[in-house]
Fold:
Amino acid sequence: MSTDGSGPEAAPKKRRTAPYGIGEDWAATIVGLVLLLVSLVGVIPEGLVP
Structure:
């Protein structure tokens, strides 16, 4: 028998979730859209974004 906890008797580990239930992909999407909006509005100077 294996004693490293990888057998069928090992309990599944719970996944940690971000606060407010927002996943990492959605957070990156929101940040990207905010940066796009800010650059289109002109808050970020033209020379800063290549």
Remarks:
- The chain has a mean pLDDT of 77.
- Residues 24-41 form the longest helix (18 residues).
- The two ends are 59 Å apart (CA to CA).
